[in-house]
Structure formats: C-alpha cells, structure tokens
Amino acid sequence: MFNSNKKDTSTSGAAAARNTAPSLLSSDLVINGNLESSGDMQVDGSVEGDIKSQKLTISASAVVRGSIEAESVVIAGSVTGQIKARHVTLNKSAKVIADVIQERLTIEPGAFFEGNCRHFPGEEEVRPRRMEQVASARSNGANATALSPGNAAVVAIDAA
C-alpha cells in the first residue's frame, strides 16, 4: 500500500500551468478589473481591464476593453485597446480596434481591424543584425556607433 519506490510526481510551476485546464470566463460574466494568469485563458464574457496570459482566446461573444499581453492570442470577438503578443490571430468574426505589437499576425478574410500594427523582432533577430551593421560600416572605413541600447538597430555612421 505504501510503496517506497514511488516516483516523484511533482512538477515545476511552468509545467503545472501547461498541464492545467484553461481558465474560462463564461458569456454571462462581466469583469471590471485586471486579469493575470500564468496559464491559458478563454474569455466568453465582458472584460473592462488588462489581461495577461500565456495563451488567450477571445470567443465570438466576448468583449474586451483594455490591453492584452500574451504569448499567443486568438480573437473571434471584440477587442478595443492594445495587444502585445508573439502570435496574434484575428478570426473572421473578430472586431479589433487596437494597436497590435506582434511577431506574427494572421488575419482571416472578414475580420475587422483598425489600428496600428508593429512588428517586434525576437531577441535572436535583433542582436546579430545590429552587430552586422556595425561591422559592415567599419569595414567600409567609417566609425560606427550604436545609438540605441534597446531592440532598435539604429546606427550613426561618421564617414572617415
């Protein structure tokens, strides 16, 4: 009954979040406030506030007013605000009035999108490109100085 050869079934917080069911906010639920989850979330109701999640699904009946931050966002409902995610998908029933900052954006025919869209590159895309630009400028006999320590690859070149 009590076996000493029992395997350890504990998991880390990230692994536990992947193994849990998504948090569901039903269509009759109205939330005024911010939501944050380390796992997946599906919104069918109305949210007035910011949402942070690993993977977020906004169903066709959902209305969200606020900023969204997630790894992956699938939108079939209505969103007004800002969306920042690696992967953003707007289904054909989506109505989005927002600024979208993303690595990959998919918009199905029939989706409504109004706002600004900016691509933010992954960390592996930024550093090599900036270093290549500086090296290229130096090989052409110019002094190059990187002006921005952030993700932008802005380089000032003084011709020698």
Q: Quick recap of the structure?
A:
The chain is built from 2 helices and 13 strands.
Describe the protein.
The chain is α/β, with parallel strands linked by helices and 160 residues long. It folds into 2 domains: 13-119; 123-159, no CATH class. It is built from 2 helices and 13 strands. The strands form 2 sheets. Strands 1, 2, 3, 4, 5, 6, 7, 8, 9, 10 and 11 form an 11-stranded parallel sheet that branches. A two-stranded antiparallel sheet has the order 12-13. The longest helix is centred in the C-terminal third of the chain and has 17 residues, at 123-139. It is globular and about 30 Å long. The termini are far apart.
Q: SSE layout and pairings?
A:
Layout: H1 13-19, E1 23-25, E2 30-32, E3 35-36, E4 40-43, E5 46-48, E6 51-58, E7 63-75, E8 78-90, E9 95-107, E10 112-114, E11 117-119, H2 123-139, E12 142-146, E13 155-159
Parallel strand pairs: 1-4, 2-5, 3-6, 4-6, 5-7, 6-7, 7-8, 8-9, 9-10, 9-11
Antiparallel strand pairs: 12-13
How many β-strand runs? 13
Q: Tell me the series of helices and strands, N- to C-terminal.
A: HEEEEEEEEEEEHEE
Separation, N- and C-terminal Cα atoms: 81 Å
Which shape, going by the Cα principal axes?
Answer: globular
Structural class: alpha/beta
| Rg (C-alpha, Å) | 22 Å
Q: Counting H and I runs of at least 4 residues, what is the number of helices?
A: 2
Unreliable spans are: 6-13, 126-131, 142-160
**Number of discrete domains:** 2
Q: Tell me the helix content.
A: 10-25%
What is the average per-residue confidence, as pLDDT, rounded to a whole number?
Answer: 78
Which sheet architecture does the biggest sheet show?
11 strands, parallel
Proportion of residues in extended strands: over 45%
